[in-house]
């Protein structure tokens, strides 16, 4: 390989290295630890389903097998990302659409759920679990 080719390869390598470092920096740390969820570090902002993916494993032991459950962020128009996260994370429960009739349990992401038929069972930093009275 000639001197010019080595310079081009070295320059291209440095450009790619700087781009990689910039991408890591904008995604935030921790850099050398396993991410908590699969959606960590995919974008500069927090992913829509991150809180649901963190909350659902905490809530799972509190739900009885076969219970009708829904999961959404109250006040949010697009409820489907959290709903689909619950479908994948709660295989032993029946996850119903947030638009369906009143399920037995509601997992509210971030915001409180203000329905008079439900009471809070558990609270976590990412959300709350409600049960119908």
Helical segment tally?
Answer: 3
Return the string of H and E elements. HHEHEEEE
In spatial order, strands of the major sheet run: 2-1-3-5-4
Radius of gyration: 22 Å
Poorly predicted runs are none
Mean pLDDT: 90
How many discrete domains?
2
Biggest β-sheet: count, sense, barrel? 5 strands, mixed
Distance between the termini: 76 Å
Structural class: alpha/beta
Helicity level, as a percent range?
25-40%
What's a quick, concise take on this entry?
The chain is of the alpha/beta class.
Features:
5 strands; alpha/beta; five-stranded mixed beta sheet; 3 helices; elongated; 133 residues; 2 domains
Detailed description of the structure:
By secondary structure, the chain is α/β, with parallel strands linked by helices. It has two domains: 1-33; 50-132, no CATH class. It is built from three helices and five strands, in the order ααβαββββ. Strands 2-1-3-5-4 form a five-stranded mixed beta sheet. It starts with a helix and ends with a strand. The model has no long low-confidence stretch (mean pLDDT 90).
Give the SSE layout:
Blueprint lengths: L2 H25 L22 H10 L8 E5 L7 H10 L4 E2 L9 E5 L8 E7 L2 E6 L1
Parallel strand pairs: 1-2, 1-3
Antiparallel strand pairs: 3-5, 4-5
Helix pairs in contact: 2-3
